[in-house]
Write a structure and sequence with these properties.
alpha/beta; Aspartate Aminotransferase, domain 1; 13 helices; Arc Repressor Mutant, subunit A; 42% helix; 3 domains
Length: 448
């Protein structure tokens, strides 16, 4: 019989989190022994007076941390030795943590939407998007100061990626270019293809794309002065400014900064539910001048005829019920801890001469190894240790970035982050030693 953790129903800490932490502490302290069987979720829920889903969520966190192992038909067993090399720890994907998804709430919302509006949401819809969601997002944008009802419109898209594709198809001429900075998110490079340039002096540039907050892959955030300067620079010019704003709500510390659009620049503002809710429900939106939105809507109609209204209706109810904000609060709490675990561990395990960005939010940061190192070479060794990340070459257009790589931390628990980086540390140390042997020695300074 295991000693049951104390659950405080009045605490601000979610009950699944309290249960997870109590069981985790028991395992790490040795009170729960390696190989010991945990109670079935139904039984433990009954003993503690909890919902079974609460217990399942706590077990899922323990399993992700490598502290228990679920075996079909037998139950869950303590494995206090944690993750072995055969259990992959992936820093490769920029995504939210699945264990934070409020699955029971989404099931309830989906059932309610189907009960209330099944015929409507399962029918063909406007290419502009589900009207109630468009109205909700429009009112939110007006309150924020990024939407003028007289001049602006809003288009729902299948995530931010479709918005980029539509912009390329509808707003960039066959001979035109879109300027972006390196390192660049591969989705932007894929959307614009040969129309993308990192040369700011290219005379045929028709648009510029920026991600002001927690840019993927570096986590870099533009300062307020940089945003104001950029807003002023596009005033009166014919270049289109595309503002990707999908990470700004994932700020774990520091003061929120205004969008460039709210500073008076006529940007096309791209947003999405993917990073703040569920990436599997492909719902994003674009805010811009009415003529531009109409062109994008026409291109969208050619592409997919109409919108997935069910996903939009579910996310609308999730947002206006207040549950999106509650979910986002949980994500911010988890993200703050995960980012801190990443930064603290990097400080201990990177070889001398390395550097890394220190974002205040988002899902990614950028590491630069000492001169001569090749992160792609290390990746092959890392895979044998059960760890993956994305080398710098994936984010390069014209500049070699062999020394660099992206770490995506938001989808991993703190324990897995620490374990993954500790596996990587010796590999990077070895690579730095090898690289140092092949560096040209610097000439001695002349004594004159």
């Amino acid at each position: 019989m295991i000693q049951l953790p104390q659950i405080n129903g009045q605490s601000e800490v979610p009950m699944y989190r309290q249960l997870y932490e109590g069981l985790r502490d028991s395992i790490l302290a040795g009170s729960l022994k390696d190989g010991e069987r945990l109670p079935p979720t139904r039984d433990l829920a009954g003993q503690l007076g909890l919902n079974r889903a609460t217990v399942s969520a706590a077990y899922a966190l323990l399993e992700e941390d490598g502290l228990i192992s679920g075996q079909v038909g037998r139950g869950s067993f303590v494995q206090s030795k944690g993750h072995g090399p055969d259990q992959e720890i992936s820093f490769s994907t920029s995504r939210p943590a699945e264990e934070l998804f409020p699955l029971e709430e989404i099931r309830q919302i989906t059932a309610e939407v189907m009960r209330r509006s099944a015929a409507e949401v399962l029918q063909l819809g406007s290419p502009l998007g589900y009207r109630p969601l468009r109205e909700y997002l429009t009112q939110e944008a007006i309150a924020e100061g990024v939407f003028d009802p007289e001049t602006d419109d809003l288009l729902i898209t299948s995530g931010c990626q479709q918005a980029l594709d539509l912009i390329h198809k509808a707003l960039i001429s066959p001979s035109g270019y879109v300027h972006a900075e390196e390192p660049i998110y591969p989705g932007i490079r894929n959307a614009f293809g040969r129309a993308l340039t990192v040369d700011a002096d290219e005379p045929r540039i028709e648009a510029m794309i920026v991600t002001p907050s927690f840019r993927n892959p570096t986590g870099y955030t533009m300062s307020l002065s940089e945003r104001r300067a950029l807003a002023a620079s596009v005033e009166g010019r014919r270049r289109l400014l595309i503002e990707v704003d999908i990470y700004s709500r994932l700020r774990y510390e520091g003061e929120a900064l205004p969008t460039i659009r709210s500073l008076g620049a006529p940007t096309l503002l791209l947003r999405s539910f993917s990073k703040i809710a569920f990436p599997g429900l492909r719902v994003g939106w674009v805010i811009g001048a009415k003529p531009l939105i109409q062109k994008l809507a026409t291109a969208k109609q050619w592409t997919d005829l109409h919108s997935d209204q069910l996903s939009q209706a579910i996310l609308l109810e999730f947002a206006r019920s207040g549950r999106l904000n509650a979910h986002l609060d949980r994500m911010l709490e988890a993200g703050r801890v995960r980012l801190a675990a990443t930064l603290d561990t990097l400080e201990q395990m990177l070889p001398e001469g390395s550097s890394y960005t220190r974002p205040q939010g988002g899902m990614n940061l950028w590491v630069t190894l000492p001169e001569g190192c090749d992160s792609a070479v290390v990746l092959e060794k890392a895979r044998r240790e059960g760890v993956t990340y994305l080398p710098g070459r994936y984010f390069s257009v014209s500049t070699p970035m062999n020394q660099c790589f992206r770490l995506s931390f938001a989808g991993l628990s703190p324990a897995r982050i620490v374990e993954g980086l500790r596996r990587l540390g010796p590999l990077f140390e070895d690579e730095a030693r090898i690289a140092s042997r092949y560096q040209d020695p610097r000439p001695e300074m002349a004594m004159v």
